[in-house]
Amino acid sequence: MTDPRRLVPRTDTVLACPELVQAQRRLGRDLVKAAVVVAQQRVRDGQIAPDDVVAQVLAALPPTASSSRRVLNATGIIVHTNLGRAPLSPAALDAVAEAGGYTDVEFDLTTGHRARRGEGTLAALTEAVPAAGAVHVVNNNAAALLLTALELAQGKEIVLSRGELVEIGDGFRIPELLMSAGARLREVGTTNRTNVRDYAEAIGPGTGFVLKVHPSNFRVTGFTAAPDIAELTGFGVPLVADIGSGLLTAHPALPDEPDADSALRAGANLVTASGDKLLGGPQAGLMFGDAGLIERLRRNPAARALRVDKLTLAALEASVRGPVTPVRAALDVSPDDLAERAAKLAAGLAGFGARAVESVAEVGGGGAPGVPLPSAAVSLPRRFAELLRAGTPAVVGRVERDRCLLDLRAITPEQDAELDQAVRRCAS
Ligand SMILES: *Cc1c(COP(=O)(O)O)cnc(C)c1O
């Protein structure tokens, strides 16, 4: 009778205890039951006492019913594609929660009739980019390019420079994406140098449009040349600029990064960009242009397959209209503030081998390649890297010269205490 294995509490009894009834409301019965089964087995194996089953289950339950885990991004890469690119602002998260139920995304509450989908979001984007006559939003920038190719260049040629045949990531390449829309590519110039005459000679009756692609994740230096947008106007064919990063207007700290408003002013007929890079919003493809062209894109049959959901529209509007986004805050934070925060954290964690060090952060695949952002980090013994990744929330740092660096560039000041706690939990 003293054998604990004979005292394993019954599943129904455990699930009926108030804390776990509460947990089932939040997570659903299956997830909680799975944790109970694991805890029961630990009792049978003699690892925990029968009385500890509920506490064990509570400790093992995931924070939400989704398997995606929250990460503190201490890599120093602000727009980190593998970590979900831009983190949403609290204002955008509120907007998502509000739009999550039934919402007026496509309904006019005044008249009681159908309305244009995402009207408020489109208005916010049009106001933010004064040179844009109209805006259309699709799933991502790749979808924006696909829709453009389908509408303007199916069975025709897209003229673009050999220096701008970009691979976006994960093996996806813009040229192949464009060809999948039934367009032919007319590559002009060379890898390092392309001039206006190269474009002029290639443009003809079979041209669908001219495409300028911003090299957002690499840099070509040395003997290079590429015409500006302004030099490519006047050929009588649409000029499309894929600016990549999604800056709506110029950012003083990133002078070489193109922005939608300037590109339109320079003469582009259509500008495409991502919503979750420097704009700091949700994944989306933004298309800015004159009203006639945007209407054609909106009416293309494929537009329906590429459209965004109400959650994206809500988050996007709040990111544009609301307070400064986390990405923008991370770009604009002063290196002195970062150094001060790193010093304070390292002093508190000195017992674990922490010290404050200078660091170099970057925007990431989302833009401004090769632009160093001075930063500060907490340096820890290397073994912390793996331990921190396993924690809740997970912390992802950077391993450099056999040390684990926690760069503060993409960590908000509010998250410093969480970072401190995460390190302490690893050490215990
Ligand atoms: C990131 C990027 C893309 C792809 O954008 P997604 O929003 O990830 O689809 C396309 N073009 C350029 C220049 C980019 O930088």
Automatic annotation (TrEMBL):
Q: Which residues carry this modification: N6-(pyridoxal phosphate)lysine?
A: K277
Instruction: List, alphabetically, the Gene3D superfamilies matched.
Output: 3.90.1150.180, Type I PLP-dependent aspartate aminotransferase-like (Major domain) (3.40.640.10)
Keyword list (alphabetical) reads: Cytoplasm, Protein biosynthesis, Pyridoxal phosphate, Selenium, Transferase
Tell me its cofactors: pyridoxal 5'-phosphate
From the Swiss-Prot or TrEMBL record, state where the protein is found. Cytoplasm
Cell membrane keyword on record: no
Residue stretches making up the L-seryl-tRNA selenium transferase N-terminal domain: 5-44
Reactions that this protein is recorded to catalyse: L-seryl-tRNA(Sec) + selenophosphate + H(+) = L-selenocysteinyl-tRNA(Sec) + phosphate
Entry GO CC: cytoplasm
* UniProt-listed InterPro entries: PyrdxlP-dep_Trfase, PyrdxlP-dep_Trfase_major, SelA-like, SelA_trans, SelA_trans_N_dom
Give TM regions: none
Which pathway, metabolic or otherwise, does it act in? Aminoacyl-tRNA biosynthesis; selenocysteinyl-tRNA(Sec) biosynthesis; selenocysteinyl-tRNA(Sec) from L-seryl-tRNA(Sec) (bacterial route): step 1/1
Q: GO molecular function terms here?
A: L-seryl-tRNA(Sec) selenium transferase activity
Whether Ribonucleoprotein counts among this entry's keywords is: no
A single Gene Ontology biological process assigned to it is: conversion of seryl-tRNAsec to selenocys-tRNAsec
Q: Name one Pfam family in it.
A: Se-cys_synth_N
Q: What is its EC number?
A: 2.9.1.1
Entry's family note: Belongs to the SelA family.
Instruction: State the function annotated in the UniProt record.
Output: Converts seryl-tRNA(Sec) to selenocysteinyl-tRNA(Sec) required for selenoprotein biosynthesis.
Q: Which PANTHER family match?
A: L-SERYL-TRNA(SEC) SELENIUM TRANSFERASE (PTHR32328:SF0)
Q: What is this protein called?
A: L-seryl-tRNA(Sec) selenium transferase
What is the species listed in this Swiss-Prot or TrEMBL entry?
Answer: Amycolatopsis pithecellobii
